[in-house]
Amino acid sequence: MLTDLLPAPNLLSATGLACRRGERRLFKGVAFSAPAGSLVLVGGRNGSGKTSLLRILVGLSSAVAGSVAWCGRPVATDPLAWAAQLFYLGHASALKDDLDAAENLELACSLAAEPCSRDARLAALARLGVAHRAGLPARLLSQGQRRRVALARLALTHRPLWVLDEPFVGLDAIAMAELGQLIETHLMRSGIVVLTTHQAVDLVVSRRIVVDLDAASLEAPA
Amino acid sequence: MLTDLLPAPNLLSATGLACRRGERRLFKGVAFSAPAGSLVLVGGRNGSGKTSLLRILVGLSSAVAGSVAWCGRPVATDPLAWAAQLFYLGHASALKDDLDAAENLELACSLAAEPCSRDARLAALARLGVAHRAGLPARLLSQGQRRRVALARLALTHRPLWVLDEPFVGLDAIAMAELGQLIETHLMRSGIVVLTTHQAVDLVVSRRIVVDLDAASLEAPA
Amino acid sequence: MATLTASRSRFFRYASPATFYPLAGRLWPWFAAVAAVLALAGLAIGLLIAPTDATQGDSYRIIFIHVPAAWMSMFIYLVMAFYAVLTFVFQTRLSAMMMRALAPTGAMFTFIALWTGALWGKPTWGAWWVWDARLTSELILLFLYLGFMALQSAIDDTRRADRAGALVALVGVVNVPIIYFSVKWWNTLHQGASVSLTRAPSMAREMLIGMLLMALACWMYSIAVALVRVRALIVERERDAAWLREAGEA
Amino acid sequence: MNALVAIMRFELLLAWRRKSALATTLGFFVIVASLFPLGLGADPQLLRLIGSGVVWVAALLATLLGLARLFAADHEDGTLEQLRLSCVPLPLAALAKIGAHWLVTAVPLCLAAPILGLQYGLSASAIGVLVASLVLGTPVLCLLGAMGAALTLGLRAGGVLVPVLVLPLEVPVLIMGAGSVEAHMNGLGAGPWLSLLAALLIVFVLATPWVVAFALRISSE
Amino acid sequence: MNALVAIMRFELLLAWRRKSALATTLGFFVIVASLFPLGLGADPQLLRLIGSGVVWVAALLATLLGLARLFAADHEDGTLEQLRLSCVPLPLAALAKIGAHWLVTAVPLCLAAPILGLQYGLSASAIGVLVASLVLGTPVLCLLGAMGAALTLGLRAGGVLVPVLVLPLEVPVLIMGAGSVEAHMNGLGAGPWLSLLAALLIVFVLATPWVVAFALRISSE
Ligand code: HEM
Ligand SMILES: Nc1ncnc2c1ncn2[C@@H]1O[C@H](COP(=O)(O)OP(=O)(O)OP(=O)(O)O)[C@@H](O)[C@H]1O
Ligand SMILES: Nc1ncnc2c1ncn2[C@@H]1O[C@H](COP(=O)(O)OP(=O)(O)OP(=O)(O)O)[C@@H](O)[C@H]1O
Ligand SMILES: [Mg+2]
Ligand SMILES: [Mg+2]
Fold first, then answer.
1. Which residues place a Cβ less than 5 A from the ion ligand 5?
2. Which of A51, C147, D77, D168 registers the highest number of CB atoms within 10 A of its CB?
3. What number of other Cβ atoms are within 10 A of residue E67's Cβ?
4. Is residue D221 less than 8 Å (CB to CB) from chain A?
5. CA A212 to chain centre
6. Which pLDDT belongs to residue E88?
7. In chain B, where the domains are located
8. How far is the C-alpha of E88 from the C-alpha of E65, rounded, in Å?
9. Smallest Cβ distance to D18: which of C118, C143, C154?
10. First to last CA, chain C
11. Domains of chain C, with CATH numbers?
């Protein structure tokens, strides 16, 4: 399992990343190097630029300076190949209100070209505790249930890098524990997880890298 | 202060509340009685009906059975008067993307007929730590900053009952502490707060009432 | 190679807002002055010296504002498209600002061409407006300008506004040849081109000179206004920049 | 009362922030009215005949354009919940929103109508009647559109559904509006048509807000 | 490739879920085209003259209606981010979406056009030309509309802005479309117009997806 997931030792590294939004410069000089199996915790106050940083990492926005590299190669050279290495979940859950949970999962999988069987999808939903709502249009789900459906993708994807923007928001204790386990398993299989969260979550992790955006901030704290 | 806020001893009580969404019955027999100064914690799994219960309490949706009473009088008799007793904040933050933070606060206050000075509004924003973004259109704020702007209303309102649906979501530690303080002060002034949250927050509270929807649930747990 | 890079770097030097801002400040009064002088001369020739037309009487004198305005309306759109290309190819912020600064002037000239054309149409064609190809395509040009400006004002992220505006300017530019050649392609009521580089002009000499002077005046005016506007845009966008604060403008 | 003024004020402020949206209804109106000669050919005789009809159809479509999402933003961002819990009775709040919408979209449209009338070769007095009919008719169109918008709130297909729901109801207004100009041009006098429109307007202003409020409550339960 | 099929499939599925939206474009088309006889009175001579123009203008407005929010839902719910990170090149994904949109909105419209043509008293062969021009022209309208939708994505005024941005660009299509029917009715032969439309279609299918993808990237940066 471990080997077929990771033919070469993975390494996510960033050097000198700087970000501006509108006329405001958020941070500069953000750098880290995360070998396989490490959890990158992006911390910082509200509005310090965590979401912006994650979007830069995955290639959704561009930095004003600095670069991101994967296994030593800069990712900007081939965005499509880079996108195929990672799984990103932002503040928005990317659910279609008119599709039910199972269909939403199917759509997400086929967009990522990670096709999977119906049983696998139902198992993933069951793991996140929303199997009993698999047939309900996403519009009718509760806040936390929506988030759970979006997270069910984690149980199906084989991508080595996960980039998760506050995945614990809105989840109850059971779901949080389940998500924590998914993350731990992924790390144990030499995956890499980049995470932001304001909640105290205790994950058993062999290597934890903390990126503190408050330190890289270009503004005086409010 | 205490007396002019509360001419008569307040009391929020609910009896035999039952809720159905679509064909699904969520809970029944929810009852509690919360005297002035008490914190009502609504707990339960994702999808157990917390949001639904809160909406019933404030009068946004109607229950299939049971009733809500305020100071002994059922609230359904005069919805406008009932709405004037409470402050409700749901999952959505009710911010206008094209208005800036200060204007959003002004709009919210004037809708509630609780006019306040510009200085008061700026002070409220400062208290929640978003004064330095008061002039930015809400669209550009970060997730947590949006939530903070919405919560700044709490520093301005004089309503005796607060109904807050997961107010801690997306906040960083500083903002959470600030919000906790706002709630504690309100309780000390004999206000009542109804709250849902999945996060562990420690509030110093003299009287805490827990409504567990899992217990009132009509479904087998998932 | 060395000279190429040198000239390129000079180009980029002037394309930087910090260098261009004072330059524009020094230039625009000159353009404005030249525009005023040319306009006075053009009007003097047009209204006082040029002879009264045999068939149209004095109403033809509208030509001295109508034709220059019509020319500028199309020309400015072409210039905007040119700046759009620069925006994409070199990613210079200044070219996008120029594009944005030109649009209102272009819309104004389009409007003037339509307005004066309508005023002229009443005595000559007996109607304020006819739906012939040239008139209609000029109207569409106005809509294009308005669409561009509406889009620009709706976006407040400057980077996005610049690139989105450049895209619209480029896509819309196909309309300009349609306007220009409409009289040739379709048989229309409107006058065909009478000023051409290859043929001898078919109108009185004084008329031609007056019209050309007015056209030059409009051109200079457009440049002056664009410079003023671009300075305002620079101040707005770079208010945090150190050089602007040193210049004492923010 | 204060809150009512605030709703109106902020509605106007928001409209002002998105100036482009304002310009757009107007632009749409003018462009649609200009499309017809392009599709039909430019015979002035023909154009004079269809002028009032085209201007009215364009006005109808233009008012519809912005209305489809009149309450959608409020619904999505949670403002509607706050509006329902505010101290303003919901019908009045809805009326304030509709009024503000009329001010910012339909009034410019009434002001631009004369130019279009000229383009279609209408006489000055016919243009006067056209504008009068628009001033009386567009509020009715806005009220009807608001009703449609409220009813389809929260349906994903909402925005698209409104026209189909509302257009058939708006046909009488169209007939009266275009009819008044035609009657005037045929020398029959536009008076009766215009008074009919005025009567319709009064009835709608009194009745629609309640319907809208009711629909809003259903849609956001 | 698989993912491309999936995009198309789910787009069609979603359209099917909101059947009402489908019916709506069609309804709008029919209603707008029927408004004219109501606004203008029913002189058959006049109607035959304006028939093809009115049907084309109605088609243009109807396609525009649903397009304004073509990418809006994807943008708001985060699907667009996933699309940008998916294994499908964005231009192709956009083309798939536009294609699906054309299938569900424009095709019914082309099928309904003959009925409207009959109402306006067009001859059978003229109706044939009308349908042919619609089949060739509506994809171009959809592509242009998609461009507008992509550019205005996420702007609050977005939906309203699209028509003003796009309508001026669509005018040539309208002129060619309506022109082909007119040329046929005047005995000049619709051939040249139709081949012009076909050429336009090919150019647009090849070029627009890139522009749309570019605009989408600008808007969702
Ligand atoms: C609203 C109505 C009108 C519009 C939109 C309009 C538009 C234009 C445009 C775009 C041009 C410049 C094109 C070129 O240089 O070839 C132009 C030139 C001209 N127009 Fe008009 N026009 C209008 C009415 C009139 C009328 C009523 C007359 C006089 C009977 C007129 C006479 C001319 C002349 C003589 C030129 C110069 C052509 C040349 O020398 O190249 N226009 N007009
Ligand atoms: N156009 C703009 N002009 C100025 N500031 C902007 C602009 N756009 C965004 N910002 C600011 O940039 C920051 C964006 O931060 P981001 O969303 O990355 O924060 P975050 O760390 O994810 O916060 P949160 O914890 O609240 O999610 C915010 O502080 C916001 O106010
Ligand atoms: N039409 C419907 N048919 C069946 N079930 C429905 C329908 N509408 C809503 N539901 C269910 O009702 C519940 C709504 O719960 P609600 O939003 O109140 O949950 P909650 O306790 O606030 O959850 P969370 O912690 O996730 O916010 C969900 O379980 C949802 O699946
Ligand atoms: Mg964030
Ligand atoms: Mg909830």
1. A 143; B 51
2. C147
3. 27
4. no
5. 17
6. 86
7. 1-85+161-222, 95-158
8. 27
9. C154
10. 40
11. 28-49+60-188+199-233 (1.20.120)
E78 part of contact set with chain D, CB < 8 Å: no
φ/ψ bin of E78: left (φ > 0), alpha (ψ from -120 to 50), beta (otherwise): left
Ligand 3 site, residue A218, Cβ cutoff 6 A = no
Instruction: Quote the radius of gyration of chain E (alpha carbons, Å).
Output: 18
pLDDT computed for residue D19 by the predictor: 67
pTM given for the model: 0.83
Q: Is the pLDDT of residue E62 over 90?
A: no
Query: For residue C247, what pLDDT is reported?
Result: 62
- Nearest alpha-carbon partner for D68 in D153, D8, D5: D153
Whether residue A23 and residue C157 make contact (CB cut-off 8 A), yes or no, is: no
C-alpha distances in angstroms, C104 versus B125, C99, C111, D31? 38, 10, 10, 19
CB contact under 8 A, A111 and E2: no
User: Which tokens in the block code for residue B210?
Assistant: 């827990």
Instruction: Write out pLDDT tens, residues C154-192.
Output: 787 788 888 888 988 988 887 777 767 766 666 556 766
Q: How many CB atoms lie within 10 A of CB C29?
A: 12
Residue D76 identity (one-letter amino acid): E
Q: Measure the CA–CA gap between A134 and B44, rounded to whole angstroms.
A: 20
Please, which residues have CB less than 5 A from ligand 4, an ion?
A: A 51; B 142-143
Name the stretches of chain A with pLDDT < 50: 1-7, 222
User: Which residues in chain B are closer than 8 Å to A169, comparing Cβ atoms?
Assistant: 169-170
Measured CA distances, D25 to C92, D20, D66, D102, D159 (Å): 33, 9, 7, 11, 16
Residues of E with Cβ-Cβ distance to B104 under 8 angstroms: none
Asked whether the predicted pLDDT for residue D143 surpasses 90, the reply is yes
Task: Grade residue B30 by pLDDT with cuts at 50, 70 and 90.
Answer: very high
Q: Which amino acid is at C45?
A: I
- Count Cα neighbours of D17 within 13 Å in the Cβ-side half-sphere: 20
3-class state of residue A205 by DSSP:
coil
Q: Does D156 touch chain A (CB under 8 A)?
A: yes
CATH of A1-85+161-222, one of 1.10.357.10, 1.10.287.370, 3.40.50.1100, 3.40.50.300: 3.40.50.300
What is d(CA D55, CA D75) in angstroms, rounded to the nearest whole number?
Answer: 33
Look at chain A and count its residues: 222
3-class SS string, chain B: CHHHHCCCCCEEEEEEEEEEECCEEEEEEEEEEEECCEEEEEECCCCCCHHHHHHHHHCCCCCCEEEEEECCEEHHHCHHHHHCCEEEECCCCCCCCCCEHHHHHHHHHHHCCCCCCHHHHHHHHHHCCCHHHCCCEHHHCCHHHHHHHHHHHHHCCCCCEEEEECCCCCCCHHHHHHHHHHHHHHHHCCCEEEEECCCCCCCCCCEEEEEEHHHHECCCCC
Ligand 3 site-directed mutation target among B19, B25, B26, B64, most atoms within 8 Å of CB: B26
Give the C-alpha separation, A205 to D83, whole Å. Answer: 47
Look up residue A85 and give its amino acid. Answer: Q
ipTM more than 0.85?
no
Sheet holding A24-35, edge to edge: A24-35, A11-21, A65-70, A73-74
Q: Is the CB of B216 under 6 A from ligand 3?
A: no
> What separation in angstroms does the CA of C109 have from each of C31, C74, C104, E3?
18, 9, 9, 49
Closest CA to C112 of C58, C149, C78, C66: C66
A3 alpha-carbon distance from chain centroid: 22
Supply the pLDDT for residue C242: 63
For the CA of A172, the closest atom of ligand 3 is: 25
Q: Rounded to whole angstroms, how far apart are CA atoms E137 and B22?
A: 44
CA-to-CA distance for A125 and A102, rounded, in angstroms?
8
Res C110: pLDDT: 94
What CA–CA distances, in Å, run from D141 to C5, C11, D91?
Answer: 63, 56, 17
